[in-house]
C-alpha cells in the first residue's frame, strides 16, 4: 500500500508543480507581464519602472528561479488592489469556501447515497425511475441559474431566507443547497448503478445463502463495494466544487476564494490571481491524497498490492 | 435457458430505420431527441430568420410578463428590459450557445482521442508524458483555469472555445487510453495479430470500432457539461462579449431584474436545463444502442412487447 | 403422509419461469427430487439445463421478479418453504441448509477478511462476536486451510482457488446444516486440487451426516461421489435413479448421448505410422522463457528448456495444470512473447526470430483457436467479415470477389450454413462460435493449428462434437495440431502423442497409449489418479 500511496502522491505533486510552471509562463509569455500586473491606465514610465523593479527584464530562467525562491519562502507578492500580502487575503477567504464546499459535499453525498441505494433495491421500480429522472435533472441544472431561481422563490417571494451576504446559519442554507444539487445528481446516478451491480453480485447471493439479515446485506456487504466507484466520482466532484463555489460566492456575496479571484480578475490584480491559483492547487493536492487514502482503506485489493 | 434465434438473417430494413424504431420505443429518449432537433433547427436557422425582430427594441413592451399576446405571439415568454421578445432571443441565442459547445466538444474529442490512442497503443514513455500533462489539467477546477486563461488572453469566441476544449481534453484522453489498453489485450485482437494484421489494421478495424461508441456517449455528456461551463463563463462576464450573446449571458442580464421581471432570467435557464437533460438522456440511450449485444436485447424486447 | 416417509428435502413438481428482456423463459418444468440426511444426490446437466434453479428456490435465492414460481412445492421436513416468511427462510439458510458456489473469488466479499466472513454465519444466527470468531477459526483449521490462525484476517484475493473453496466450505458447514448444496464446487480448479476438495466434502459429510446435493456438469464427479443422480436437460429431469443404474443402463436418449460424449472412455486413436513421423514440421529445442521476478530471487521460468517435435499429420497433446507454462508455450511459438533462450523452427523458418518473408509464411501456416470463442471473435464484425479477415490481411491469397463463396464453403465445412455469414457472433451458441473460430483458422489453409484449451469452456456433448470436427478436418486438410488442455480425458481420445508439463518443464512425453497405460513420471501418475474419470473413485 505504501507503494500505491507513494506513487499517487508523486503524481499529484507532479500535477501541482506543472500548474505552478503553467501559471508562471502564462504571466510571462503572453506579452509584457507588467501589462497584466498593472492597472490598464498605468503610464508607460510606471510600466517600465515596474518591470525593472520586479526583474521582468531578466532572462526567463532567472525570473523562474526568483519565482520559485519566493514561493519557497511563502512569498506570493502583494495584492495591488488591497496592498496587503496575497497569502493573508487568501487565508482570510479560504475558510468560507472550505465550509461551503464541505457542507455541500456532505449533503450531496448523504442524499445521493441514500436515494441511490434505495433506488437500486428495485431496478426499474417506481422509486428507481423517480430517482433516475430527478438525479438526471439535478445533474443538468446550471447552478448560477438555480441560485437565482432559489433566491427568487425563497427570498423574494416567500421571504424565508436572506438573499445574500454573510451572517448566521440562515445565510448558508441557500448557497449550500444550490451548490450540492449538481454533484448530488451525478453521484446518485453512480451510486444507483454500482449498487445495482453490487446487489446482483455473487457475494450478495452467498450472504443470502448464509441467512444474513437484508439490512446487513445492503449496508455492510453491498454498499461498501458500491462505494469504490462512488469515491472516484465524488473526488472529481469535490475538485469541481470550486467551479461551483466561484459562481455561488459571487451570487450570494460570500467572501470566499472564488469571489476573491473574480474580483481580482475584474481589478486586474494578477499577483492575487496567481497566489489564489497556487494555494487552491495545494488544497486540491491534499484532497487528492485524502481520496487515494480512503480508496485504499475501502479496498483491500489496493492495500495489499 | 437460451432463447432460440430466428433462423433468418439480419432484417433487410436500412440501419437508420432500425435505429429510429428503436428510439421510438424509449419514450424519454425519443422526447430528448425531438427537443434536441428543435434546438438544432433554432441554432441553424434562428439568426437568419429572427435576427432583426429579436433585436427590435419595444419600450412599450418593457418587461412584459409571459403570455403577453397583445404584443404578438413572440411574447409568449415575455419580454426583457428593452422590450425584446425573450422567445426570439432564445431562438437566436441558440446558435452561439450550440456553436461554442459543439466546437469545443469536437476539438477536445479529436485531440483527446488521438492522444489517447497514442498513449494507449504505445504505452511507453510517450504515454507517461501525455498522462502527466493531462493530470495537470484535470487536477485543477476547469472554471478557475478558464478564468485565468481568459484573463490573460482576453475573452473572444476563439479563446472561449480554446479554453473549454483544453480543460476537457483529459476526459477523452483518459477514456480512450483506458479502453485501448483494455481492448488491445482482448483475444480477438490477439487473434488478428497472430494472423499478421498490421498495427494500422488492428487500430482501425478492431480497436477503433470498439472504442467509438463510448467516445460518442462521452461526447454527448460532455456537450451538456461544456454548455453549462460556457453559461457559467458568460454569466460571469468572461464568455463571448456583447453584442453577441448566449443563453448564459441572457441569465446574467436578467439577474438585475429578478424582483420585477423574473422571467427574463428564468427562461434561458430552462432552455439550458432542458438541453442538458436531453443530452444526458440521449447519452444513456446511446450507451445501450452502441453495444451490439445490448442493442439486440432492445430489439427483442420490442418484438415481444 | 406419515412421519417415516417424510424426506429431509423434497421438491415436488416445481416449475419456474424467468421474465427476461428476451421474453419469458421456462427455467425448469415439473421438477421433482428428494434427498435425505447422509445421502448424496447429484443433479447433472449442461449449461442452461436449469440444474441450479431448484436449489435456488429451496434457499429463496430466486429474485421475484424477474423469476416466477408457477407451480410446485419445496418441502423442508414437510414444511413448504415457498409459503414460508422471509424471516423463517432466513433462519433456515446457513443453519439448516447451506450452499457453496463455483466462482469463489466472486462469491466471497472482496472487501472483508475471510475470518470475518466465516464468523458471519454464526453472527447471522445469534452467536455473539467473540464466540463466532473462535468457532470460525476452529472451522478454518478443520477444513485444513494452511496457517489458518495467521491468515484469519487476510482477504479473499490473497488465497488460491482451492483455499478459497475451503473457506466457502467452512462458512457453509458452520452450523452443522442438514443439507449442503454444492453448486459446481470444483469446476474452476485444477484436477489435483479438485480431488482434495471433493475428498474433504465427502469426509465432512460422513463426519456430520448431512445430505449433500451436488450440482455439476461433470459425469466423473457424479460417478465418484453420488448415490443417486437426476439428469436434467432443457429444464426437465429426463432420468433419475441410483448412479450405477443410470450410468450402466441409461434409459433416456439424452443420458446415453451424454455418456457417449464423455472423452477418455473410448479406445486410443490409431497412432500415425512411424514413417510419417519422419518429417518434422515444428522442431523446438531448449525453449526457455523467464520473467524477471521481484527482489533478488532468480527469474521465474515459465518455460524451462522445453524440447519436442511436431510431425506432419500428427496431433500433439500438451497437458498441464494452471501455471504449468502450456499457454506460454503457445504464445512464445506464435511470437506473442519473446523467448529468452532456445530455438524453434517451422520447416526452414526460425519461429523465434523470423525474417520478414518467414514471418509471412508463419502467419499463414500456423493458426490458433482460443479457449473462449466469445472473446476471440470481434463482436462488432459479421461472421463473413471475421472469416474473411485473413484474406484481407494477406491480399494475394484470394481475390475479393471469391471471398463470399469461400466463406460459405468454410461455414459448411465446420457444420454451419451459408446463411450464417451475415450474422453477428452473439447470435450463436458457444459451440457454434467455436466452429466459426475454426473456420477462420482454416481460411488460409494452414499446416498447423494450435488449439489452446479450445474445448475447455464447452459443454461435454458440444466438446465431443468439436473434437469430432477437428478430427475430420485433420484428415481432409492434412492438418497437424498442437492441442493444449488441462483435461486429460480429452487429450486421451484425440492426441497421437502427449507432453506433460509442470512448472515450465516437460516432465514426460510419449505416445498417448503408452503414457496413459504406463506413466513413468510420478507427476503424470498423480494427474491420472486424481482425474475423476480416469482415476479411481474418490469415495473409497
From TrEMBL, chain A:
Topology with respect to the bilayer: Multi-pass membrane protein
Keyword set includes Iron-sulfur: no
Predominant location category: membrane
Gene3D superfamilies: MetI-like
UniProt protein name: Peptide/nickel transport system permease protein
Domain of life where this protein originates: Bacteria
Annotated ranges, domain ABC transmembrane type-1: 94-295
Protein family according to the UniProt entry: Belongs to the binding-protein-dependent transport system permease family.
Recorded GO CC terms: plasma membrane
UniProt source species: Shinella granuli
Bilayer-spanning residue ranges: 12-31, 89-118, 130-157, 169-191, 212-234, 240-258, 270-291
From TrEMBL, chain B:
GO cellular component, one term: plasma membrane
Localization, UniProt: Cell membrane
GO biological process, one term: transmembrane transport
Origin superkingdom: Bacteria
Residue span(s) of domain ABC transmembrane type-1: 94-283
Family: Belongs to the binding-protein-dependent transport system permease family.
Protein name: Peptide/nickel transport system permease protein
Automatic annotation (TrEMBL), chain C:
Keywords for the protein's UniProt record, in alphabetical order: ATP-binding, Nucleotide-binding, Transport
Protein name: Peptide/nickel transport system ATP-binding protein
Membrane topology (UniProt): Peripheral membrane protein
Similarity field: Belongs to the ABC transporter superfamily.
UniProt-listed GO biological process terms: peptide transport; transmembrane transport
Any one GO cellular component localisation term in the record: plasma membrane
Superkingdom: Bacteria
Transmembrane residue ranges: none
Major localisation: membrane
Localization, UniProt: Cell inner membrane
GO MF term set: ATP binding; ATP hydrolysis activity
Domain ABC transporter per the UniProt entry, residue ranges: 11-259, 282-528
PANTHER family: D,D-DIPEPTIDE TRANSPORT ATP-BINDING PROTEIN DDPF-RELATED (PTHR43776:SF7), TRANSPORT ATP-BINDING PROTEIN (PTHR43776)
Matches recorded under Gene3D superfamilies: P-loop containing nucleotide triphosphate hydrolases
